[in-house]
Write a structure and sequence with these properties.
This protein folds into two domains: 228 residues, CofD-like domains (Rossmann fold); 87 residues, no CATH class. The chain has 14 helices and ten strands.
């Protein structure tokens, strides 16, 4: 596309409804927010958070080994790009330029050949990685192209493998503990996941992700696949250290429902308990949950106390009854929490 035409697309009339940006304090001050997770859960959080701040960084898991990401990872030895692509798409601009690129990067080829199932954004990201040999700079460049309202970073610069300890993975032996390897396998495993770990065991954190967490006013962890997208952030030593030591306030955002396979039968408080098990020294200020998804608030409050957190219940689910967050309701919940708990650091 010629440069002049591209400029016209990017700055043209915005006919679609722009999400309402909530007020963020006197004189236009905005909080520095870092959101951690992966997949659709992180996308939901980013879609909400971009409505209340223009200073937003996503830190994304890099253990995916399924689908297009798994194929590219296996063939080229790169980081799995899929969750990074989804985060970038969630941050695309609201004008015609941003909406167009969101559709493009999310587009999947349907064919009889090798391209079948590959997402355009995955191929674009991997091509830039090979050209630039710097995953962070390449992602920043993709963000510029998309007009992203925030920055997207991998939690580690090396591909990681997820390993889980599962009780009853073999239905014929319901009490037996088994080791299951691979994020795609863990996400759909029968049985009960007790513990997850990363291979290599002590992966290096991306320095820019560590710096963002340390410099944040607010850190949001979750929602998302609990064992395969949320907890892995706590298994990267440099990132866990930053999360523990940051002056930022911390929000743990719970899922709307258990995930088939990975957290079958888990109550909201059980989600909190397994997080405490994996990072016993990490504290939070708030545990956010949908009010209709918490049948036993006292039990959730007791679990949250182990994190040093209070429970905030709010209507954040989509009105169609599906287990999806409503972006505006979730944005309103985050905004209310940010206001109730005051401001820290430069956002004060």
């Amino acid at each position: 596309m010629p440069r002049k035409a591209a400029r016209q697309v990017r700055t043209g009339n915005r006919t679609a409804r722009t999400p309402r940006r909530l007020r963020t304090g006197r004189r236009g001050a905005q909080p520095k927010v870092v959101a951690l997770g992966g997949g659709m859960g992180l996308s939901a959080s980013l879609t909400a958070l971009r409505r209340i701040t223009g200073d937003l960084t996503a830190v994304v898991t890099v253990a995916d080994d399924g689908g297009s990401s798994g194929r590219l990872r296996s063939e080229l030895g790169v980081l799995p790009p899929g969750d990074l692509r989804k985060a970038l798409a969630a941050l695309c601009g609201d004008d015609e330029w941003g909406r167009t690129w969101e559709r493009v990067v999310q587009h999947r080829f349907i064919s009889e050949g090798e391209l079948h199932g590959h997402a355009v954004g995955n191929l674009l990201i991997v091509a830039l990685w090979e050209q630039m040999e710097d995953p962070v700079k390449a992602l920043d460049l993709v963000g510029m192209l998309l007009g992203a309202h925030g920055r997207v970073l991998p939690m580690s610069a090396v591909p990681l493998e997820l390993e889980a300890l599962v009780r009853g993975h073999d239905p014929a032996r319901p009490r037996e503990m088994s080791t299951v390897r691979g994020q795609a396998t863990v996400a759909l495993t029968p049985g009960e996941v007790h513990e997850v770990r990363l291979l290599p065991a002590d992966p290096p954190a991306v320095p820019e992700a560590v710096a963002a967490v340390r410099d944040a006013d607010w850190v949001v962890l979750g929602p998302g696949s609990w064992f395969s997208s949320v907890i892995p952030h706590l298994l990267v030593p440099g990132l866990l250290e930053a999360l523990t030591e940051t002056r930022a306030r911390r929000v743990l955002s719970l899922n709307l429902a258990p995930q088939r396979g990975e957290t079958d039968g888990f109550s909201p408080q059980r989600h909190v308990e397994v997080l405490v098990q994996h990072a016993p020294k990490l504290t939070f200020d708030v545990v956010l949950a949908d009010q209709a998804a918490v049948p036993d608030r006292p039990s959730l409050c007791r679990a949250a106390e182990r994190l040093g957190a209070e429970v905030q219940l709010a209507p954040v689910a989509a009105s169609d009854g599906s287990p999806r967050h409503d972006p505006e309701l979730l944005a309103a919940a985050y905004d209310r929490i940010f206001r109730m708990h005051g401001r820290i650091g430069p956002w004060r």
